[in-house]
Design goal:
Layout lengths: L7 H9 L7 H21 L11 H36 L6 H42 L5 H26 L5 H34 L1
Helix pairs in contact: 2-3, 2-4, 2-5, 3-4, 4-5, 4-6, 5-6
């Protein structure tokens, strides 16, 4: 759909409009990409510095992970929009007769699962990004430590944002067992990685203010 090739101004304008996509899921993925890029910048500012020669190999490996995650997040901006389009169409299906009601229910069950899969993947990528930024903050240049703090905050925001896009879809599922399993998966990621992101932010703040 080309949302990632738009200018920042164009993306924000369409996000603010009544257009069905992009929405909160795509915005969360973009925020995750920005957060990961900030972590990657810490690595870029560390590589080649004599002071950090002993961790250079680690930083280079982290930068490779970060670059891959940036690409994943941008892919997910588009994937979220693509997954929502059939869901939006399903909402508009007629349900006047019993046959129409049954067909709408059948289609909704399929598209809700697809619509849930993307924000769940965004959540998983956010958790990977938080792990990477945690290492950047610990090993990277002290001159760029604030960028690690900003990056982990963005990834936490993206994680929380994507979770809401999981929960809004699981709430509508008629397969309550599957919905509960997805909710539990999302809850597990939140319970582990929101505190981890907070801890990284707290450590960065401590370094900057002491």
């Amino acid at each position: 759909m080309g949302f990632t090739t738009k200018t920042c101004e164009e993306f924000v304008d369409v996000l603010a409009s009544k257009a069905p996509v992009p929405g909160g899921g795509g915005a969360s993925a973009l925020v995750g990409a920005i957060g990961m890029a900030l972590g990657n910048m810490v690595g870029s500012l560390t590589v080649g510095k004599k002071k950090y020669a002993d961790v250079e190999a680690d930083i280079i490996a982290l930068k490779e992970k970060a670059t891959a995650l940036q690409a994943d997040f941008l892919r997910l901006v588009e994937a979220d929009a693509e997954a929502f389009e059939p869901l939006a169409k399903a909402y508009g299906m007629p349900r006047e007769t019993e046959e129409e009601k049954a067909e709408k229910a059948r289609v909704m069950a399929i598209v809700l699962k697809d619509a849930c899969a993307v924000p769940m993947e965004i959540m998983e990528k956010c958790c990977e990004a938080i792990d990477v930024i945690e290492e950047f903050a610990a090993k990277g240049s002290a001159l760029a430590i604030s960028d690690a703090g900003v990056g982990v905050t963005f990834c936490k925001a993206a994680l929380l944002g994507a979770s809401l896009n999981v929960f809004i879809n699981t709430k509508l599922m008629t397969d309550k067992t599957h919905a509960a399993a997805l909710d539990a998966q999302a809850d597990a990621l939140l319970s582990e990685y929101v505190p981890k992101a907070d801890a990284v932010f707290a450590q960065v703040t401590k370094q900057l203010r002491t």
